[in-house]
Amino acid sequence: MQLDLDIEGWPRGGWEALAEGAVRACAVVEPALVNPRLSASLLFTTDAEVHALNREWRERNKPTNVLSFPMLERGELLDLDPEGPPVMLGDIALAHETCAREAEEKGVNLDTHAAHLIVHGLLHLAGHDHVHSDTQAEAMEALETAALAKMGISDPYGDRN
């Protein structure tokens, strides 16, 4: 998958390498993301920008940690032939202030939390969800945990009972 990054409002860091690592890890646990035709955009931005996107596209008047905007249905992704022109999988946006606050609350560094949110966003782009049922949520969390383990990051849900 080709990943187009835009970084604005985040501190200097290895965000591109982190994002590429998340893409590789997700491809291991979600084979549909291996298709060479796929591309996605990832915006590292501010709470204000994510707030505006959330208000415009989700009708929620608040910032959030990550937004995902899939451009393919799951069936379309699974049926996508590996030969042909590039196809846009979707867009992801991460809000710096919310991510930093959550990382501090969880006692993890910002890189670790950002990696988790990138993985989470990529899985949403691949058609996974956690909103409609506990079964879906558990399956998505298992994929996230497996992808993060490939990156050397411990289970972010490990403290749940």
TrEMBL record:
Single strand-specific metallo-endoribonuclease involved in late-stage 70S ribosome quality control and in maturation of the 3' terminus of the 16S rRNA. It is an enzyme of class 3 (hydrolase). Zn(2+) binds at H120, H124, H130. Keywords: Cytoplasm, Endonuclease, Hydrolase, Metal-binding, Nuclease, Ribosome biogenesis, rRNA processing, Zinc. It comes from Erythrobacter ani. Its EC number is 3.1.-.-. Its main location: cytoplasm. Binds 1 zinc ion. It is found in: Cytoplasm. Pfam families: YbeY. Belongs to the endoribonuclease YbeY family. Its cofactor is Zn(2+). This is Endoribonuclease YbeY.
